[in-house]
TrEMBL record:
Pfam families: GDP_Man_Dehyd
Source organism, top-level taxon: Bacteria
Keyword DNA damage recorded: no
Keyword Signal found: no
The NAD(P)-binding domain, residue ranges: 8-304
InterPro entries from the UniProt entry: NAD(P)-bd_dom, NAD(P)-bd_dom_sf
Full protein name: GDP-6-deoxy-D-lyxo-4-hexulose reductase
Organism for this UniProt entry: Azorhizobium caulinodans (strain ATCC 43989 / DSM 5975 / JCM 20966 / LMG 6465 / NBRC 14845 / NCIMB 13405 / ORS 571)
Lineage summary: Bacteria, Pseudomonadati, Pseudomonadota, Alphaproteobacteria, Hyphomicrobiales
Keywords: Membrane, Transmembrane, Transmembrane helix
Membrane-crossing residue ranges in chain numbering: 6-28
Amino acid sequence: MPGNPVLLLVGGTGFVGGHLAPALVAAFPRHRRVMLSRGEASARPDWETLEGDLSDAVAMDRIVAELRPEVVIHLAAQASVVSDPNATWVVNCGGTFNLARAVARHVPRGLFFFSSSGEIYGESFNDGPAREDTAPRPMNAYAGSKLAAEAVLRALLPQEWRLVIARAFNHTGPGQDERFVLPSFAAQIARIEAGQIAPRIRVGNLAAERDFLHVKDVVAAYIALLHYEGPERRILVNVASGHVYGISDLLERLRGSARRPFEVEIDPARMRPSDIPCAAGDPSLLKQLVNWTPRHSIQETLDELLDWWRAAVLSGRGEGVSTNH
């Protein structure tokens, strides 16, 4: 689509990107849609793929100079649960710096959407559900690097750019890596049902309470925010359900859907010593701005996740599921 405005999606090969990419095709039908890839299998209908690495400042400058994107959607990240802290800072903060600097150099105005994280609130969750004005008190490299990336974007992007920062809370769904808690439960149940492992599930901290959304509801929120046309040039908003669920309760819901009984075993390696007992987000601002409401119940979310893992285990697709956003 030569001559059409360009939409650049960074992180489209990850978990959320896999669900967001088709929605962007429908939401931006007249844009030339380009997906940045680090060499992953990323072929998707209606998308061009361009190889590039956020940590390569020279490559990012060249790519942005050539494309001159009017819409930039930045999902790419490495989570602390799947990578070492150094790599997390390099990708999440350093990569964002490279992208933002290139955009500021070569494109006078546009829309920049950044997927941040509710984890940035950290210790402040002990004071109750987090609002956008709650003090960030990150407790790990992932949260700290996301908070730093937010500051980078505010500092580097010209005022002519509209900036949307979405602090997404826990979300899950088909395709999420099993190193996250709910896919871990679902994958183990699917393997027990298939007779691949003993009827025993290894778990971490079951006492924690977390705010969960279906990834499709997160995608719907992102699309709505991308189309928001209010007077604010810079928006910071939580993407959360506003409800917390005990991890033990979610496991019991999955047990109720399992086709074979199993035992539960606490695995010390899965325990996180800095766990916050309860982490909840306040979605009031999101609902006010774009009239968004989650459409998927927690039970529907769990059932869909378990069914996906059943199919993945039987087909062998469950190995090496994408770990980035």
